[in-house]
Structure formats: C-alpha cells, structure tokens
Amino acid sequence: MADGLTVAVERWPIAGGFTIARGTKTEAVVVVASVTRGGVTGRGECVPYARYGESVEGVVQALQDQAGAVARGADRADLLAAMPAGAARNALDCALWSLAARASGQPVWALAGLPQPQPVVTAFTLSLADPAAMAAAAQRASSRPLLKVKLGGIGDDERIRAVRRAAPAAALIVDANESWTEATLERNLAACAEVGVALIEQPLPAGTDDLLEGLATPVPLCADESFHGREGLDAVARRYRFVNLKLDKTGGLTEAITVAQAARASGLGLMVGCMLGTSLGMAPAFLLTPWAQFVDLDGPLLLAKDREPGFTFEGSTMLPAAVGVWD
User: Fold this and answer.
1) Could you tell me which of 281, 292, 302, 299 has the C-alpha nearest to residue 245?
2) Residues contacting residue 33 through CB under 8 Å, at least 6 positions apart
3) Burial degree of 305 (CB within 10 A; 0-12, 13-18, 19+)
4) What is the predicted pLDDT for the residue at 1?
5) What is the pLDDT, as a whole number, of residue 22?
6) Which pLDDT value is given to residue 160?
7) Residue 2's pLDDT is what?
8) pLDDT of residue 17
9) Is 324 among the domain residues?
10) CA angle at residue 199 from 196 to 201, to 5 degrees?
C-alpha cells in the first residue's frame, strides 16, 4: 500500500436488527481510516452518528480533507488542533496509534502509559420492543451477567419489569436514550429501583437534564448524550454519578485518556461504551476498561459477522485483543 491516507466505508449486517428510542438499524455503517508510512499501515474505525450532526459522507470528507496533512507527517497532537471532536477524528487518531504500535513493535497500551488490559465482562444489549418481546430476548440472554436494556418512553416501567422477570439473576443497565420526560421520570425511576437496576443512562434529553440537579435518584444516573468531553464536566457532575465514555464522542483515544482522567478527578465513575461497530472500533476503547466500573463494548456480539481477526468472547467476557485486531 502506498504511503498516505485511505478512507473506506464498510457495511456490517446486524443480527436481527437493533432498535432504540430513535429508530431501527439493520446494518452498522462504519468508516475506516488507514494511514501508511514506510510500508507500515495503521487503521482506525468510527461510526458517524446523526444524533450528533454527523453523516457518512461528511465524515469521509472530513477525513479526506486531512490527506495532505497526513502526507506531511501530521501526528495526533496536530489532529487535536486541526479537527473537532467526533467520529472522523476518532478514526484518524486511532489509525495513528495503530501505526505507532506496529512501527515500534509495542502495544498501544504501553505506548500510552495505560494499564495492561485484562479480560472484562461487557454488557449485552437488548433492543427496544414491546414488553413481551423484550422478556423473550431477556430470557434468551438470561445467562449473561450484565444486560443493557434499551427503553423508549411510554410503557418503560412495564418493559423493565418484564425483563427482570425473564432474567432474574442478571445485573441490569437501562438506557432511555433521552426518551423520558419530567412527567414520566419519577414513575420510571421507581420501577428501576423496584427491580434492582444498577445504572440508568441518559433518562432526559440533553439540554433539559438540569432538572436532575439536586435530585436524589434511587438508582445512579449515567450521562451519555449530555457528556462528550472535558467541557461542562462540572454541570455533568452535579446531575450524574457516571459518564459514558465513547471514542466517537471524544474524537479518539488521545483525548479520551485526558477526558477519562478529568472525569475521575471530578468524582465521576466511568462506563466505557461504543457505537455499533466491529472489533476494530472496540479495540482502542478496550484499553480504557481498567478504569471503568461498567463496560459496554458488545458491538461485535450484535453483528451477524465480525471482522477477522476480532475479539474473542467467552460468553460476555471479552479477552484482550489478539495481535492483528488493531495494534
């Protein structure tokens, strides 16, 4: 492969579809950036997300706009100055980390000064559906130790009770994806407390979650759409006890390391999460799991087929990525 930057769009079918409060997907559309220097190639994957104003075409263009800088030797620090946080920067930042690891023969965690990754239990996500369908899905997944339950507004109290009856031994995270309102908040919080939910992600829309300030909730809350990076951390810490750290939001592993340290210094716990992608997209985020209380990197488990090589899963336990997955 010639030196320089190449960009590719890939489509990976989802096993059975994936539904959240904002709609249904049947495939994961990812953008892969590959950087080659001196015959060595590093890759990074991102997932453009319309909720954050991104499109596949826009992310591809943003990456292609950096081709000249990459050819001139741009590094990760240059990207932080040249590109906004988001999916495009994530793919390129991770490609440069991969390149550095492959050129040096050292794993990224060692180059970055991170703890050596160990096996971790990831959440397994149940799509939004009616209570009976969600109960059936929960029963099929009831042997998994941690389930993430997608909710969608009206009827969520019935959904969460149905899931708990079908999976009595599993720890539960619920993710409302901004679908609750001031009118439904108390009822849904009470239902989650009743069945022993461990964590609730983003109950209210970002921008209206000031209602959570000073609210003593019976279940810890985790910011997702309300949390992107270091900006606004003080407000986030007044409303939530955890944050969902995703590299597509921070714009890469480089900034994610800094954001994770800042969040922890603010007294916030960490969930390491993902958009729906392949093992290539999970691998950089996996390096942050030693700092996390919750891990949600089940993207490959939800696909009809993952890329090869990919992560090895023993049930819901992710083993550290083998050589060739990313770095």
Assistant:
1) 292
2) 5, 6, 7, 43, 44, 45, 46, 63, 91, 92, 94, 95
3) exposed
4) 72
5) 81
6) 98
7) 87
8) 85
9) no
10) 135
Specify whether 99 is located in the same domain as 246. no
**The CATH number of the domain where 223 resides is what?**
3.20.20.120
Structure tokens of 20? 């959240």
- What is the b/e burial string over 203-233, where b = at least 16 CB atoms within 10 angstroms of the residue's CB? bbeeeebeebeeeebebebbbbbbbbbeeeb
Residue 134, classified by CB atoms within 10 Å of its CB into exposed (0-12), middle (13-18) or buried (19+), is: buried
- The letter for the amino acid at 288 is L
The predicted structure's pLDDT at residue 208: 94
Total structural domains in the chain? 2
Give me the phi and psi of 65, to 5 degrees please: -65, -20
CB 86 within 8 A of CB 54: yes
Range of the domain at 298: 120-318
HEC profile of 262-280: HHHHCCCEEEECCCCCCHH
Residue 226 and residue 161 share a domain: yes
Chain segment 109-155, per-residue pLDDT in tens: 999 999 999 999 999 999 999 999 999 999 999 999 999 999 998 99
Which residues of the chain fall short of a pLDDT of 50?
none
**Residues constituting the chain:** 327
CA count, 13 A, side-chain hemisphere, 262: 17
Tokens describing residue 295: 């891990």
Taken in order 234, 201, 307, 56, is the CA torsion positive or negative?
negative
Note the pLDDT of residue 21: 83
Catalytic residues, by residue number, are: 150, 246
Q: How far apart are CA 215 and CA 185, in angstroms?
A: 11
- 200 and 265 assigned to the same domain: yes
Query: Whole-prediction pTM value?
Result: 0.96
Specify the DSSP class assigned to residue 31.
E
Q: For residue 42, what pLDDT is reported?
A: 98
